Every structure is written in C-alpha cells, then in structure tokens.
Amino acid sequence: MTFDEAYSGKVFIMSRKDYDAADVVIYGMPMDYTVSFRPGSRFGPNRIREASIGLEEYSPYMDKHLEEVNYVDVGDMLFPFGNAGKSLDIIEKYIDKLLADGKFPLGLGGEHLVTWPVIKAMHKKYPDMALIHIDAHADLREQYEGEVLSHSTPVRKACDLIGPENVYSFGIRSGMREEFEFAKQSGMTMEKFNVAEPLKKHLPKLAGRHVYVTIDIDVLDPAFAPGTGTAEAGGITSKELLEAIMQIAKADLKVIGADLVEVAPAYDPTEQTSIAASKFIREILLGWTT
Q1: Which of 12, 92, 104, 165 gives 117 a disulfide partner, CB atoms 3.0 to 4.6 angstroms apart?
Q2: Left, alpha or beta for 139 (phi > 0: left; psi -120 to 50: alpha)?
C-alpha cells in the first residue's frame, strides 16, 4: 500500500511499516494544478515529513507519546500531472479502500481541492457526517474563471453534498461577497477571523457525531506560515491553532479523518511553515486518533 517510496524516501517520524496492522494511514496528495496564485503545494507533504524529524515524539499538550499510536505513512499518491479530474478520482478510490480496511485517513496536501474527493468517500460511509473547516478562505465558489475544479470550491461542493447545515467554517477572512452571502443564507456556520473561541462554542452542537476536519495552513497569519500559496494577512497564531486541535481532541466527537493542506515550501526558506505543520500533525495523531 505504499505509493512512491522512490520519490518520497521519507516518512513521518515514527511511522510503522505494517499497513495491515496500522490504525491510521498518513498519505500525501501532491497536487497543485488549480491554484489561482502561487503553485508549489505539491511539495508540501514531503517537507512536512522532513520537518517531523526535528519533533519530539512526546507531546506535552496531549501528555501522550507517538508510540501510543499505530500509524503508517504510505508516501505520496502518484497523479497524472496536470489532470485534476483523474487525480481526484484516484484520491476518492484510495479513501474508499482505507475506509473499507477500517483505517483513519490523515492526508497531507497539496492544494485544498484534494479535500473534496476525500469528503465524497467519507460521505458514502458516514452519510450523517459533519465538516469542520479551518481556513483563511471561504472556498465557497461554484467556479473560478469558469473552472468548477478549483481550490476555491471544495467547501461549496461539500455544502451541496452533505448539506450546508452540516458545515462549520472557522477563521475565515477572505472571499467574494457572494460567498459570505451564501454562508448567511444557506444555514452553514461561518465564524470569521478567529478559531479557538468560536470553535469552543460550536463543538457541543456536534456531540456524538461523525466529523471530518480539514485545515488549510493559511488560516495562520503569514508571520507564522509564510510558506503557502495564497497567504492572507490578519490570521491566527500557531498557538491558537494548537488550542483548537486540543479542543477537538477533548470534545465528544467521532473524528473520522482529517487533512492539512496548502503548505508550499518554496515561499518559506526558514521552514517555519513545514515545522508548524508537522507539529499539528503530531497533535492530530495523538489527539484525534487514539
């Protein structure tokens, strides 16, 4: 079940080797074909893996050690370069396989459009699912410059599939006027600018439910994460995102999978974006999968 060991050559820290025995599967989705500003997020998954080598295996936030989680990093998916539609099909079929095998999918992006086929696969198994979306951008467009497959559309597609009342967006500070109007009128939940405090307010509404969580690294202010394709000033701190991850870990939810997307290493020579992303993945492994 390993995709591309020759290309990847790296795995997330303390990854096991036995797919069959693993409870959690980390996989990379190196696609950035529909981005509207700066490409390069296809290199994100491997940089997150490389940055993880600098992490401690123990989390003082969760008071847990990575040895307590049985996970395997299968590497990056192989996509037909430039073919977004076929690449999305590959993702959906692979998530179907992970869910059939009883695995917790933990994806590394890649642009945010890669979340859409994961949601489609999740919805087939969990038709009652809700979505927690943490991002700077609304991602509620129906199309971008005539293209319906765009990194600005996945949350709108999710609303159409699972119902807007089951979509909860946090940290939003950018989008077209029409996107914000749709959020108001559709019945979805959109909390602007902040994440941790409004998340605390809404988590009780999701008690007992199956929830998928998608995090776009650009929810962080560029001061904390400059290495992303569509940086947006006025974001949250790394500390606030860690707090949000811990809140989800402590809530009465059934987290069924997650992804972290839009790390674009070329724009961050300090590697602080990849370093932060790898830490978030550690906390997700320890907080949401055990």
Answers
A1: 92
A2: left
Check whether 139 is labelled as a binding-site residue: yes
Query: 26-58: per-residue pLDDT in tens?
Result: 999 999 999 989 999 999 999 999 999 999 999
Pick from 100-104, 105-109, 148-152: least confident: 148-152
Q: Judge contact between 261 and 218, C-beta under 8 A.
A: no
Q: Confirm or deny that 137 is annotated as ligand binding.
A: yes
What tokens were used for 219?
Answer: 């929810």
Strand partners, 259: 107, 214
The angle subtended at Cα 9 by Cα 8 and Cα 15, nearest 5°, is 95
Q: Is 112 annotated as a binding residue?
A: yes
Q: Is 202 annotated as a binding residue?
A: no
165: nearest Cα among 135, 204, 131, 134: 131
Q: Is 63 annotated as a binding residue?
A: no
For the cut 90, the answer to whether the pLDDT of residue 145 exceeds it is no
CATH 3.40.800.10 fits 5-288, yes or no: yes
